[in-house]
């Protein structure tokens, strides 16, 4: 259920790369229970904004507050521990590990992943932590996935995405950031992804995603923010922003 209770507040956010103003003074507030989507033409600054939010990049200016805590320029591991997790545009699973092992890795605080990844790679099929394994199974089942013991590299693309999302939520975050989760998916996989996002939302998570597939966006998002040239040019429901002249112009100029 969407609320008016802010979970993430972004104020005057800027990220410049030398002379490139990738994000150039953006304000937005995500409320608890939103499935919020960030849209905009290529190069409008969406991924950069997500990278600053998750601590991958430091901000040039501005502030980010999560649950009332200032998280501006904190390290990714710290932001992760505070309850924000994410997926990336390109799937980042350990190909030689099983689906279950990949999700188990997400159970541990970020920063230990490299070490555990190596450990699991050496001792494939062996999961030491029963609690982590139980949580990983439960999370995968919740997302309708039960092929626990198949190596990630042998799963179809859509299912690799599901495993990646399971890994992002197994630690029990409050805010999930997804960078183009439907990219490369066929129609069936995209429909399954909508179901998965609803289930995650039902668990009480707030979701912020970047997405290009407008019919997918229209089916899942409760709120939309549109960026163009590093600035926010519109916000509202998906229907509202898609009928906004500024948005139509931005896309036609793309
Ligand atoms: P979007 O996700 O909306 O397609 P991006 O955030 O990827 O947009 O890019 C916004 C702008 O910032 C683009 O002009 C892009 O070339 C530039 N940019 C992104 N990352 C970097 C970087 N690491 N170094 C320099 N320029 C970058």
Describe the structure.
The protein has 254 residues and is an alpha/beta fold. Helix 3 packs antiparallel against helix 4 (113-122) and helix 3 (99-107) runs parallel beside helix 6 (157-169). The protein contains ten helices and ten strands. The mean pLDDT is 90. It has two domains: 1-83 and 174-254, Rossmann fold (3-Layer(aba) Sandwich); 92-172, no CATH class. Bound molecules: adenosine-5'-diphosphate.
Quick overview of this protein structure:
The chain is of the alpha/beta class. The protein is built from ten helices and ten strands.
Tell me the domain tally. Answer: 2
Query: What is the number of strand segments?
Result: 10
User: What is the name of the CATH superfamily of the largest domain?
Assistant: P-loop containing nucleotide triphosphate hydrolases
Count the helices. How many?
Answer: 10
Large-scale geometry: globular
Give the name of the CATH architecture of the largest domain: 3-Layer(aba) Sandwich
Overall pLDDT confidence: 90
CATH topology of the largest domain: Rossmann fold
| Straight-line distance between termini | 34 Å
Order of helices and strands: EEEHEEHEHHHHEHEHEEHH
Across the major sheet, the strand order is 6-7-8-3-9-10
The bound ligands are: adenosine-5'-diphosphate
Share of β-strand residues: 15-25%
Largest sheet, in brief, is: 6 strands, mixed
Low-confidence stretches: none
What is the gyration radius calculated from CA atoms? 18 Å
CATH C-level name of the largest domain: Alpha Beta
